[in-house]
Amino acid sequence: MSKSLLTIDDYEDAAAGSLSKMAFDYFRSGADEERTLKANRNAFGKYEIWPRVLVDVSVVDTSVTVCGTEVAFPILVAPTAYQKMAHSDGEAGAARGAGGAGTIYTLSTLATTTIEDVASASNGPKWFQLYVHTDRGLTKGLVERAEVAGYSAIVLTVDAPFLGRRLADERNRFVLPEGMSMVNMGELADDISETLEGSALSSYVATRHDATLQWSDIEWLRSITSLKILIKGILRSDDAVRAVNEGVDGIVVSNHGGRQLDSAPATIDALPGVAEAVDGRCEVLMDGGIRFGTDVLKALALGARAVLVGRPMVWGLAVGGTEGVQRILELLRDELSNAMALSGCANISSIDASLVRRG
Questions:
Q1: Which of 65, 99, 237, 252 has the fewest CB atoms nearer than 10 Å to its CB?
Q2: Residues 163, 155: Cα–Cα separation, whole Å
């Protein structure tokens, strides 16, 4: 890969040149006016890092344990659908890249590679992201397959009873390319087919996702699996408290990458309130807008145990397949390590709230 690829933005620019317009727009775009999409990234600029000095940072240790799994750095791969649209390596290649970098890969329900093939592609740690479908038998089967295949956690997405209105997908009449399908969905695998207007994905979610999903279903999910359970899509402190009371193992502060409810808050702004409400009773993670190692440092200082990245991983995948994903993650790792050293933090445990102030 080119030595000119120095930042996540460089990879995005390169990916834009290699992907079809439909694929690039699908991965890049947000809901409606994309206010939340933009806010996710811009909000990091409101927080300043106040570095400590005269600290021995000759060796910086970025390792951390997340939900019982030790990783080389607190940057995980977020679930992202249809990764074969980005590169033929698809989800299997992305999982290999994450495993090679020493971190957790999260497989989307709407993957274009089977649960089992991804599991066999990499020895690295893996989680499975779950959408609850109206067919609870299908949903139960997905969870059981993930557990048998060796995934260590279920990441339940709770912010998508319906799909946010993604104008780019509507205008492009988004449809999966010929020969590509949601291979884990059984007879539903071919339901993303070309429609006369709008987005086939939007139609699929409207008819297949269970919009009746509620707090009592956490108990149902726990009854069918022994895996750890994280809830992804929480922004409010009262919802965070409810999640803790339901006994979840982790919370992912997320607005779905700005792809669901436009005008929802930036996740870095929502994070401190959630972390304070949880008060250490379960692990708190976040995604949304991470583009530099300093962003990761700010999130950790404001209460996150780790962060997840989606689009940056996709740009790496599009540019270089497995190697591109590993390079993206190692780029962020190196930036985080540098930011820690310059801030007087020799290890993750030394990052605390005193390091960051809102400007």
A1: 65
A2: 18
Closest CA to 7 of 359, 206, 295: 295
Nearest CA to 255 among 263, 243, 267? Answer: 267
pLDDT band at 194 (very low <50, low <70, confident <90, very high): very low
Q: In this structure, which CATH number among 2.40.50.140, 3.30.160.270, 3.40.30.10, 3.20.20.70 belongs to the domain 8-358?
A: 3.20.20.70
Can you read off the two tokens belonging to residue 38? Answer: 């933009």
Whole-number pLDDT of residue 227: 98
Average pLDDT of every residue of the chain: 94
**Phi, psi (degrees; rounded to nearest 5) at 21:** -60, -40
User: Looking at residue 196, what is its pLDDT?
Assistant: 44
Tokens (6 digits) for 2: 């080119």
CA 270 to each of CA 49, 285, 315: distance values in angstroms, whole numbers, following the listed order: 18, 11, 26
Amino acid making up residue 6: L
Which of 87, 133, 209, 256 is labelled catalytic?
A: 256
CA distances from 119 to 105, 106, 126 (A): 10, 11, 8
For the chain, the domains span 8-358
Structure-token pair, residue 196: 């006369």
CB atoms within 10 A of CB 334: 13
Closest listed residue to residue 273, CA positions, set 239, 231, 309, 230:
239
Residue 356 CA to residue 288 CA, distance in Å, equals: 18
**209 catalytic per annotation:** no
